[in-house]
């Protein structure tokens, strides 16, 4: 196997591990069955910030609860088969080869888990859970944009990892997003709390702001938006 290739080790028919060529050589593992269920059952910032709308828009039952949601998402987990595993192998190999210089500067969690679903959990969108789990719908895994989407999710994993919080703030600031100081923190309006839509890749709201101007406004007034 060439130096640019991905290193993988199988320990059963549905589980593979890969070495990401980042600064700390993180292990990416494809998980299914009970292992995947246990990861998705964990209460993280995403689930902890759920609104009633989040539950109702995802779970088709009357007055859904967090437990209903957890039961629902675990029912969407698929087993990695040869085709889907090979697609991820090619994806990670491509990222290791084409992003080697960038990866060498990045620290990730030591272990990153990837769960395959049928897509019904988040309307066929890929997303992150906990600090080290990426959920990939089958449609994306077998699609043409798998590498771009997986790299996007890897960024979210990187940005959440505790060693990267300071540089994350600096990175956001470089494109105009500034962290709201703790002493000036903003609370989400109570009147909107029940209909808030939570993004699994960015479950915290009102943490950063950007200054914008209205189109056509000649006054030059800037608005702080979050």
What's the gist of this structure?
With 226 residues, the protein is of the alpha+beta class.
Structural class: alpha+beta
Kindly report the average pLDDT value.
91
Cα-to-Cα separation, first versus last residue: 48 Å
Largest sheet: 6 strands, mixed
Secondary structure topology:
Blueprint lengths: L7 E5 L2 E5 L7 E5 L1 H9 L3 H4 L3 H7 L7 H9 L7 H17 L1 H4 L7 E7 L9 E3 L3 E5 H4 L4 H15 L4 H10 L3 E2 L10 H4 L14 E5 L10 E3 L1
Parallel strand pairs: 3-4, 4-6
Antiparallel strand pairs: 1-2, 2-3, 5-6, 7-8, 8-9
Helix pairs in contact: 1-4, 5-8
How is this structure best described in words?
- By secondary structure, the protein is of the alpha+beta class.
- It is built from 10 helices and 9 strands.
- The chain folds into 2 domains: 8-162, no CATH class; 172-225, no CATH class.
- The protein has helices at residues 33-41, 45-48, 52-58, 66-74, 82-98, 100-103, 138-141, 146-160, 165-174, 190-193, and strands at residues 8-12, 15-19, 27-31, 111-117, 127-129, 133-137, 178-179, 208-212, 223-225.
- It has a 6-stranded mixed beta sheet.
- Helix 1 (33-41) runs antiparallel to helix 4 and helix 5 (82-98) packs across helix 8 (146-160).
- The protein is globular.
- Residues 1-13 have low confidence and may be disordered.
